[in-house]
Amino acid sequence: MSCCCEFQGCDKGAKVLGVIFDLDGTLLDTERASRGVLNEFLARYGKELDREKEDKKRLGMTQKDTATIMVTDYELPLTPDQFINEITPMYRERWAKAKALPGANRLIKHFQKNGVPVALASNSLREYIDAKISYHKGWKESFSVILGSDQVKAGKPSPYFFCRFEEAAKKMGVDAINCLVIEDSLVGVKAANAAQMKIVAVPSQREADCNGLANVVLHSLLEFQPELWGLPPFDDWLDDTLPIEPIHLSGLYVTGCLEESTDNATLALPDQAVGLYLGWAKIDTDRKFKILASINLDFSCVAYKRIRVYLVDSNSDLKQKQKMQISLVGYIRTWDNKELSSIAFDKLDEYKSTARASLDLPSFACL
Length: 367
What we know:
By secondary structure, the chain is of the alpha/beta class. Helix content is 28%, strand content 21%.
């Protein structure tokens, strides 16, 4: 396994001729959008969510098998089919709010622009896949193949996961060995590995178990470098910065960091949002500042992320414990296991200078 910084390129073996994406957690932040649905559903029947059980995700199971276990575990007065019929509309309502993860739209458009065959192979039913991607303009047309769990014949021991990628490759007309799979889960990575495909893992919380099986483990799709796989490189960087779809956060500014308030800033972040960003901060209705935002993994805290905010133009410190809204509109670099504060001052000044110049461009305007 390599991180994005260590991987030097796939210059040996079969050439990548097609790319297969997973959907939930890879392209769409559906888990965050639908958070709380199960809790709300169980409350209707006087049951409480067992967090320990639910943390052991039932990945690789069919919808019917999962429903059967849920009915049994929580002693619900329902059949598995009744459980599915009652809870599905609740999820459907939330899917409309599921946002594309950082870099997802950029990567899909890039492959389409350059004629790279792209497939979508998800563990969801095809009906659910269509519902989820219908809220994202151009997605359905971008995939030459869209494959749901109900479109793949069962096998053993894990019927769908260990054949969905082979089936997607077959439908694309590309040999498995010439496919690159982009996945977020360990089960999906295992499936791609079993199919002898190349693998980029973008796990939501850096699952260590992905490290031994994936060729590369990234924090975010913004770190993906097509040229390392023999694919056309991106051409959308403006000097040293990349315009991104804005990420809006709000929280309490304390000791240089954005911390939780009524609207929890850290928990509002997509899992795949780490690195050095540039953007705008708003303290009140009249005050707006150019900023750098260093988003780092910090497993010492419950939210496991730390958002450090640096003013680009102001030399004065902001008052402590005040509400702040920020809009991240550009990306500079990946996270390298270090707080930005540990970087030499001249490097920090260099980043500030880069952000200052970029934020004067229309592409980085505050929305």
